[in-house]
Design a protein that fits this description.
about 10% strand, Rossmann fold, mainly alpha, single chain, about 45% helix, 14 strands, Glutamyl-tRNA Synthetase, domain 2
Length: about 575
């Protein structure tokens, strides 16, 4: 048998030195004397992977089956550290995490960094930070760029698992299920052009797989020539046969059987996504793969790889992309066209993380909205998400709906919480707002506490970037003295209302006493103090009590819409209230 010490290992693969150097090894001399055709697959595997000493059985024992309750889901989020965190990635991770944890299972983070060309600095940290910020908690996986992974099935970074992939690739070569391919990029491109010329399917299969049937002595000869090679899995498939896949979101889907000999180990020693994810999901004991439906067409390849390895495949759920309406058509949410495609957009705009999470659950399962109405104060983690209820054609992204959900989320917060979250956001994104909030914390908390705690809390704030506009009138140096009075009330009547209000205003009045005084102003100036009376005989009045209240509101705030006016004045204080009305007059 050809031993690994008879070759020089360079990188992942062994490239023998010149033939005359090899002949100095007595084992090799005997092999050449007998003829290379006698080399069997095991010897070939040793030639290709001379430094692989472990066996598949070693890793099966190292990563045993998990001891979990029946029905527990083991799934993962497996992003590439390319820097841009797409809202679709957060969506997929949330769906995976919820399915695992609501079943009493395991959710882990695996970093798939086999594409080194697209990798960015701090890419892993960005992924971890986003998951942490949105409360997508993983039980195992990578916890930092240079920190030790958590969990017994690591390492959870693919670039650190090269020995694992090489071990299983070597086993496939031994079994005749994989082989080295020496085709150059130029040769593959020429093959593709020939296929197109004769209207054949493109790909490395059948008669086009020119290195598939190389004899072992031909392989050794090419290796001795120093030719680079990849390792391909030998497909047993026939393209005109069909396979039926039952996807947990898309249902039953039929595909042509895979007959392409896909690359499993590239010439630089790095595994392809196809091979790496199959090995990892088996050894990490994943029983459900949740991923984007751009991978649905790869199902024939992946199921075939599991079968070739002799492993039971996990179940698959392919999530359709988040869509955006454009005119009368729908398209995928694009990171190039749509700012909201990036998770960073939601931080910059100041959406509460839990609001984004609840919106994603809402587009994942339409049953979330009625559940939330019935359980207004229950944590979203109590909602049982169902893959079978997900839209196979893709959920439609709607910023208006997100704003509504966000307003509802913020309305349930205390004034102290709104202050804290807004200040934290403003420190990063709005220095002017941060200064406004920190000059007098007690005053700011009182502003945010207006209309809190009742059955109908205020819903005027949808994101932290809305806050400055919503509270600017509370600050004398920010109030622009622009008044949005209704044109239906004459200037003469406005002045009369404000003068009458100043005559009767007492800061310490209880709310009902204060409101009764406004009613009295209505009766004095010809406005209906009761809306029913106004509706019954509108021609008898100049307006109603809402019109009178609105004049006072605009004088105080400059706008016709605001939270409770009585509470606003209690926060502003007596002197500021009187000063504001006099300035308006």
């Amino acid at each position: 048998m050809l031993k690994p010490y008879c070759v020089i290992a360079v990188g992942l693969f062994s490239i023998p030195i010149l033939l005359q150097r090899l002949s100095k090894c007595s084992k090799i001399e005997k092999y050449f004397e007998k003829g290379m055709s006698e080399m069997d697959n095991k010897e070939l595997a040793n030639l290709l992977f001379p430094d692989v000493t472990k066996t598949p059985e070693y890793y099966e024992e190292l990563y045993p089956k998990r001891n979990l309750p029946e029905g527990a889901i083991v799934t993962r989020f497996a992003p590439s550290p390319t820097g841009f965190i797409h809202i679709g990635g957060l969506y997929a991770s949330l769906i995976a995490e919820r399915n695992a944890h609501q079943s009493g299972g395991v959710f882990f983070l695996r970093i798939e960094d086999t594409d080194k060309k697209r990798e960015v600095a701090d890419g892993v940290s960005q992924i971890i930070n986003v998951l942490r910020d949105f409360n997508v908690n993983f039980d195992e996986g990578v916890i930092g760029e240079n920190e030790t992974d958590v969990g017994a099935y690591g390492p959870y970074t693919q670039s650190k698992r090269a020995d694992v992939y090489r071990t299983f690739a070597k086993k496939l070569v031994e079994e005749g299920k994989a082989y080295p391919c020496f085709c150059t990029e130029e040769q593959l491109e020429l093959t593709r052009k020939r296929q197109e010329a004769v209207k054949a399917r493109t790909g490395y299969y059948g008669q086009w797989a020119v290195d598939r049937n190389l004899s072992n002595d031909e392989i050794v000869e090419k290796i001795n020539q120093g030719l680079k090679f990849v390792v391909r899995m030998r497909s047993p498939g026939v393209n005109n046969r069909k396979i039926l896949h039952k996807d947990l979101i898309h249902g039953k889907v039929e595909f042509p059987e895979n007959d392409i000999d896909h690359v499993i180990i590239k010439s630089d020693g790095i595994p392809t996504y196809h091979f790496a994810h199959v090995v990892d999901d088996h050894l990490m004991r994943t029983n459900l793969v949740i991923r984007g439906d751009e991978w649905l067409s790869s199902i024939p390849v992946h199921l075939q790889m599991f079968a070739t390895m002799g492993w039971e495949p996990p179940k698959y759920a392919h999530i359709s992309p988040i869509m955006k309406k454009e005119g009368e058509t729908k398209r995928k949410l694009s990171k190039r066209k749509d700012s909201e495609a990036a998770v960073s957009y939601y931080f910059e705009e100041g959406y509460p993380n839990v609001a984004v999470t609840e919106y994603l659950l809402n587009i994942a399962n339409s049953s979330f909205e009625p559940w939330r109405r019935s359980n207004p104060m229950t944590p979203y983690t109590e909602f049982q998400i169902k893959l079978s209820d997900m839209n196979a054609s893709g959920a439609l992204f709607d910023l208006v709906k997100l704003n509504d959900i966000s307003k509802d989320v913020i309305s349930k917060m205390t004034g102290e919480e709104v202050y804290s979250y807004t200040k934290e956001w403003a420190e990063k994104f709005d220095s002017e707002l941060h200064e406004m909030l920190t000059r007098n914390k007690e005053y700011a908390v009182k502003m945010f506490s207006i209309e809190k705690g009742g059955n109908k809390p205020r819903k005027d704030i949808g994101k932290w970037s809305d806050v400055k506009n919503q509270i600017s009138y509370f600050f004398e140096d920010k109030f622009d003295h622009q008044y949005d009075f209704s044109e239906k009330i004459s200037e003469e009547d406005r002045k009369a209302i404000l003068n009458a209000y100043l005559e009767t205003y007492v800061f310490d009045d209880e709310k009902q006493v204060w409101f009764d005084k406004i009613k009295a102003i209505c009766d004095k100036l010809g406005f209906a103090s009761n809306n029913k009376d106004y509706k019954a005989n509108p021609d008898q009045y100049k307006g109603n009590i809402s019109d009178v209240s609105n004049v006072i509101r605009v004088a105080l705030t400059g706008r016709q819409m605001s939270p409770d006016m009585y509470e606003i004045m209690q926060v502003m204080g007596k002197e500021a209230t009187i000063k504001r009305i006099r300035e308006c007059l």
